[in-house]
Structure formats: C-alpha cells, structure tokens
Amino acid sequence: MHSNRKEIPSQRLPNGDRSVYSSTFGFSRDGATLVSYVPTCRKAVVLLSTEHRDDMVADDKAKPEIITYYNATKSGIDVLDNLVRTHTCKRPTKRWTVCFFWNMIDIAAYNAFVLWITANPTWNSGKSHVRRLYLRELGKQLLAEHVSARLAQPQGK
After folding, report:
1. I need a labelling partner for 56 at 20 to 30 A (CA). Which of 16, 24, 45, 123 fits?
2. pLDDT, tens only, 21-41
C-alpha cells in the first residue's frame, strides 16, 4: 500500500522513532492483517494481507512472513506484464477507463492462449511465434460473424 493512504494509522507510518527491522501488526475482525516493517531508518513498508492472520517474523532481519511471501510471489505480475506487452491492443489515450479496458482485453487474450495451449499442446508446435498466430486466429474468429453480416447487407451505390 502507498503510505499516503488516509486509511493507514499514523503509528504504522515511517518516522524517526521506530527502530530499524521493527514490525507492527494490526488485525481486523474480518481476517485482514496490516503490517508495517522498517527496513531502513525513516522508511516503512506497509502491506495488507487477507491470507496471513498471525505476526510470524522470519530470522532474516526480523522480516515478517507477509513480506517474505510477497517478495517470493510478486514476480508473476511482472512476467505477465512483459508477455502482454509484446502483443497488445493498447493505443495512446488519455482516458484511464480505455487503458483499463485494453489491459483487460490483453490479459483475457493471454489467459485464453494459455488455456488453448494446455488443451491442445501440439497446435503449431515447433514454431517460435505461436502466441502471435493464436491472436491472429482469435481476431479472425471474433470478426467472422460481423464480416458475414456485412457481406449479407445490400450494397448501396
């Protein structure tokens, strides 16, 4: 979480009074855990977790289990972002809603590709650009009904 969020209590924010490698935990009734860890002087890392419900701390610099778990699993979104960036439908725009929609389309297309390859592992095997071929075929399938409807319309002159 960004430390400028108004929902974070002031005792969880970075200040000079907290010692290095110290952690403070906050627990809610609905099972969420908020941890604030100080890795260096005047810095605090704040994480919110609904998976962890205890104040376990690892031996390595007294780092909380929530932070070590996050560090071990955070690379998944970076890998997905790099994969989606290679073949994307995004275009320059100033509207955040359009950017969000295009990102959803890119991720949905990648998820569909993963499911297709899992179900059909021999489809175009041996080719280095299988995802590009899949996206091209997906686009054709999505446009097929629209194209046939347009062809059936009478041509105006």
Report:
1. 16
2. 888 888 888 888 888 888 888
